[in-house]
From TrEMBL:
Family recorded in the similarity comment: Belongs to the glycosyl hydrolase 20 family.
Residue ranges annotated for the Beta-hexosaminidase bacterial type N-terminal domain, each copy included: 4-125
UniProt superkingdom: Bacteria
Record's catalysed reaction(s): Hydrolysis of terminal non-reducing N-acetyl-D-hexosamine residues in N-acetyl-beta-D-hexosaminides
Protein name: beta-N-acetylhexosaminidase
The organism of origin for this protein: Microbacterium profundi
Amino acid sequence: MVLPLVPLPSSVTESPGTLPLTATTRIVVENEADAAASVLADVIAERTGRRPAAVAGAGHDAIGPGDIVVRRTAREGEHYSLRIGDTVHLEGSDAGLFYAAQTLRQLLTSDGEVWTLPRVEIDDAPRFEYRGVMLDVARTFFDVDTVKAFIDRAASLKFNRLHLHLTDDQGWRLQIDSRPLLTERGSTTAVAARPGGFYSKDDFREIVRYAASRHMVVVPEIDLPGHTHAIGLAYPDLVEMPVMNAGLLTQAKSLGEALPVAGEPYRGTGVGHSSVKVHDDATWDLLRDVLTELAELTPGPFLHIGGDECLGTAQADFDAFIARVTALTTELGKTPIAWHEAGSAQVAEGTIGQYWGSTTPAGAHADHARRFAEGGGSVIMSPSNTAYLDQKYDAAFPLGLEWAALIDLQTAYEWEPTTIVDALPAEAILGVEGPLWSETIETLDDIDQLIFPRVAAIAEVAWSPVEKREWTSFRDRVGLLGAVWDAAGWGGHRPTEIAWSTR
């Protein structure tokens, strides 16, 4: 029997038969598992239209056939177990129980008027500690409700990190009390003719709170020293004049985009033309103000400081900047994350690199990635030709870009994080992230079209044991999730090579 499980658990043992959910099915809450029981009731109600009653555990003698027992254990981490026989038992930490509820949600199937669960025992834990998705809110601004909806989609597939790309040439998206001009002048526009916007500190706190309720840690990014044209709208004396090369000029002409002009909002999509003045004291006064406030707002351990595509900056200046900004981030009590180009510099000890090159590394990309591990850090794998969720499925797809690759579902699935960078120890890979850049998207429906179903492929790469991953198995299992996503109201692309379930 093919079970609709994505990502595939570590261990699955099936038994004959099914367990029906009935009007008398209850959720029995043991050992202060109230939060997990509430999540479980929500997903059952969403899937079946019926919300089971929750009762406090009164000993196993009180548990009846068909009841669902939710038991919180002292064991830390994300491990969980799920046993379905004549009753259902979920056990784990708070995070583990949340993931067990997502697994149970996938297993629910209707047969006419009856909802059933397969009789199965699952013991499960993730392969990688860091399992992330990124949302670019700088090029296109998405409001708090849309970010929450994105969190819901990712959390259902056991992602546990939300990387928010908060700043870029096209806009600055976070309130900074000590530097109000960043939002007053730098947040008003976005790509093309789209409106701008920014998150107040209360907005950001609400995103962080909501993510935490889904066991996701927010990783905020202030992209530096490039991708900083929007800073120049607020503080023109702190940024260099735009530096154009032949590639940027050709791209702007082919797309009919205006070139960047100092002091004017930039609505194009070219990258690499901007930089802060990396040696000016006033620049560092600004960055200390910004990163200090961001660190105070962010309960998670990470601050992403960018470090990519600073094409007009001399290598020695770039390296000096990266060394200093990673040291500042560490001084503020946070672990820096930087795109892999920053590996050219002497980064602060423990800095994490994010690899966005191809699965066949070009130039010095692999060398730069290895440098993070050599400096006591680790690497997040986000190869652009397999993990970038903003790339087109095929040449005719109406949304997305294609500079990295055309990424169909099989391509998004069939890659292995440990084989990309030679001589990078497997234990130095912290995890996997699927970025969604926003040049071509404007709405939640657009987001769904690009992430579903490929985000499920990235989830399995990040969670499941490598020896258990196999394309034809995944193809069959992910098709059975069509009904689950439909019940949640999540749209998306439905490739015709997949047999999509409707119940």
